Amino acid sequence: MTLSNGEPNFVGTMCSWNYVRYTCGCEKQSEFIQCEKWNGTIGKCKKLVKGGSKASSNYCPTHLIADGLGGTIWKIDPETNTAVGPSE
Ligand SMILES: [Zn+2]
Ligand SMILES: [Zn+2]
């Protein structure tokens, strides 16, 4: 298994962080996974590698606005990745 950027996925052989890739383009660490060697122990590899990344259909919280814009429902157009205001 390889990542979208072509790097091999090291899950299983080295301790790794999995990632979530949001629609806004941000990538955030999600679950940390111990490798086979250290699984079930208190140990981990000295170097932690990047594991797989999972695509989310959401924007990350950093790129969202609390309560929209004063409660107005703006939608994200998936084609252009821009905010579209409420139709009149
Ligand atoms: Zn490990
Ligand atoms: Zn973001």
TrEMBL record:
Origin species: Zalerion maritima
Lineage per the UniProt record: Eukaryota, Fungi, Dikarya, Ascomycota, Pezizomycotina
The protein's name: Uncharacterized protein
